[in-house]
Amino acid sequence: MKQTLLAATLVLTLAACKSEKGLEKESQITKETKMEVSIKEKTLAVLKSIETGDPQGVSYINAANYKQHNLAVADGLDGFGALLALAPEDGFKENTVRAFEDGDYGFTQTEYDFFGPKIGFDVFRFENGKVVEHWDNLIEKAAANPSGHTQTDGTTSITDLDKTESNKTLVSNFVNDILVHGQMDQISNYFNGDNYIQHNPNIADGLSGLGQALEGMAKQGITMEFDTVHKVLGQGNFVLTISEGTFAGQPTSYYDLFRVEDGKIAEHWDVMETIAPEADRKNTNGKFNYPK
């Protein structure tokens, strides 16, 4: 499998050297096919190719213009290929639990066997039907939380597509008001009482569970701070926020997925990742650089 996928990346890299005329002709031939495949479907195919080596999935990546924001991976398709070369003989494994699209972005929540069991969020930006940028957050898989929820269980049904923008506004306001600015007197505006399903492995359900967890961290001298919300993506009742801050004094990337129900936040999944220092980074694209 590893050899198949590496061969696919090589083919795509060579394909990037075609003349502009050749690319234009190819675009005309495949235009109809591309229109039939959604950004969500392409995102799923790219991720599954990590496991299966399917060249079709890799073909959705722009071989000539692919910017990598995972700081542990070198830039471009060559960096992607170098990462795949490190896979064990039986390859990496992936199981995408939730997948969404918002404009030019596809984003997912995935269970990985990727140098060990992990949970991750991935974001892909598309131009002209191909992936040109990738961001992600990964964390080690953990046991169920005090309320018995895992990091990925819960509903996967996407509903309320007509409420996507209002739900994005609600969640964006929550993260900014409560997590960034600490306006705790406003928190009741965002929840239906104490009804709140929590998937963070260290926190129980409800606002009461969140309060107990924060109190416990404070007693240990651990602080969790959100400084900047860099991106808000959504589809229907699901909204993903990507934020920057610190946890226990370490620079941290926060990916938080919320499910909204009847205008209130009803469920939450997240991945926190410590941001690598500059000396350890394999690319200089930044963890949070999004096009304006």
Can you tell me about this structure?
The protein folds into two domains: 2-141, Roll (Nuclear Transport Factor 2, Chain: A), CATH 3.10.450.50; 161-278, Nuclear Transport Factor 2, Chain: A (Roll), CATH 3.10.450. The chain contains seven helices and ten strands. The protein has helices at residues 2-15, 20-36, 39-52, 55-58, 76-84, 164-180, 206-219; strands spanning 67-68, 93-102, 105-113, 117-127, 130-140, 197-198, 224-235, 238-247, 250-261, 264-274. The protein has a five-stranded mixed β-sheet with strand order 1-5-4-3-2, covered by helices on one side. Strands 6-10-9-8-7 form a five-stranded mixed β-sheet, covered by helices on one side. Helix 1 runs antiparallel to helix 5. The longest helix is centred in the first third of the chain and has 17 residues, at 20-36. The two termini are 38 Å apart.
Explain the layout of strands and helices.
Elements: H1 2-15, H2 20-36, H3 39-52, H4 55-58, E1 67-68, H5 76-84, E2 93-102, E3 105-113, E4 117-127, E5 130-140, H6 164-180, E6 197-198, H7 206-219, E7 224-235, E8 238-247, E9 250-261, E10 264-274
Parallel strand pairs: 1-5, 6-10
Antiparallel strand pairs: 2-3, 3-4, 4-5, 7-8, 8-9, 9-10
Helix pairs in contact: 1-5
